[in-house]
Amino acid sequence: MKLLNPKTVLAIGTFAATLALAGSVDAASTNVMYRPL
Predict the structure, then answer these.
(1) Is pTM, for the whole model, over 0.70?
(2) 3-state DSSP call for residue 36?
(3) What's the CA gap between 16 and 5, in Å, rounded?
(4) How far is CA 28 from CA 2, 18, 23, 36, 37, in A?
(5) How far is CA 30 from CA 14, 16, 20, 21, 36, in A?
(6) pLDDT tens string 1-37
(7) Alpha helices, DSSP H only, in 1-37?
(8) pLDDT at res. 12
(9) What pLDDT score does 17 carry?
């Protein structure tokens, strides 16, 4: 079984993109809610 078949790459890419999007949204909401200055 090949680990890096297209479905695996797509799944990992989607997962990484979801994490990145959630992280940026979380950071943006944190900046809005807890704006230090």
Answers:
(1) no
(2) coil
(3) 17
(4) 38, 15, 9, 13, 15
(5) 24, 21, 15, 14, 10
(6) 566 789 999 999 999 999 999 888 888 887 776 666 5
(7) 6-33
(8) 93
(9) 94
